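Reopening: structure tokens for the adenosine-5'-diphosphate complex, inputs below.
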Amino acid sequence: MLLDIRSLSKTYPNGTQALKSVSFTVERGEFVAVIGLSGSGKSTLLRCINRLIEPTSGTILFEGHDVTHIKGEALRRYRQRIGMIFQQFNLIGQASVLKNVLMGALGSVSTIDSILGRFPQSLHEMAMRNLQIVGIADKASVRADSLSGGQQQRVAIARALMQEPQLLLADEPVASLDPATSHSVMRYLGYINRQLGTTIICNLHFLSLVREYATRAIALRNGEIVFDGSPSEITEEWFRHIYGEDAVEVEIR
Ligand SMILES: Nc1ncnc2c1ncn2[C@@H]1O[C@H](COP(=O)(O)OP(=O)(O)O)[C@@H](O)[C@H]1O
Ligand SMILES: [Mg+2]
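Re-run output (same inputs, fresh job):
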């Protein structure tokens, strides 16, 4: 088991209960899609897992170790094992694609070397291999902001791969992309999941993408898990349970 989430709750300082006693486990190699309406707690869940925000109560076990309250060097090492991809690709636009990917290896070079932009040859080679994985090695030397949105997200994926992550967390990675480009990015995530064995937890809006790429779907509604199973089991009845009676499948699809 890679991840064991037990009774995880998060109440923000303003009183919003974003997660209410959420429990689930994730095995190595799974591709989990987290679905649910906007505001259902998907981002809060991912941010609790990599400890960007502090859970109010509950436990997070990673490879059997309690990481709920780790700090300092232990937290830094934990985060090093988890890659993160966001809706907005968070690249440095005026830097080259290769430089952006190398930034993903910052945890493994000294501060002075990173300030001077000195990365060992082995990391250069690794960055190029990761750019090949996402099919964009030919763009290594161009400015990141000259790429299309889908290409930029693939650079962000290559950057995350520099950590050789055990777990890749993706928060609506295709939400700002058109449908065709979304499929392209999801296909690379699927390839990484199957070929590199990287476990993926991905917040997704469109059910069609969930059905095509995820091995498992966890649905949140008002901070609670209301479905956990195979994407193929999400019937129309489940759909209404997850998204509410007023939701129209074509809009969520
Ligand atoms: N920093 C915050 N402070 C207060 N409330 C927040 C904060 N971030 C999110 N929320 C609230 O927590 C709930 C869950 O939000 P979020 O995790 O972003 O959901 P989702 O990613 O599914 O849209 C929402 O009601 C949202 O308004
Ligand atoms: Mg969100």
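Residues 96 and 142 are 5 Å apart (CA to CA). Residues 179-196 form the longest helix (18 residues). Marking as resolved unless the reporter disagrees.
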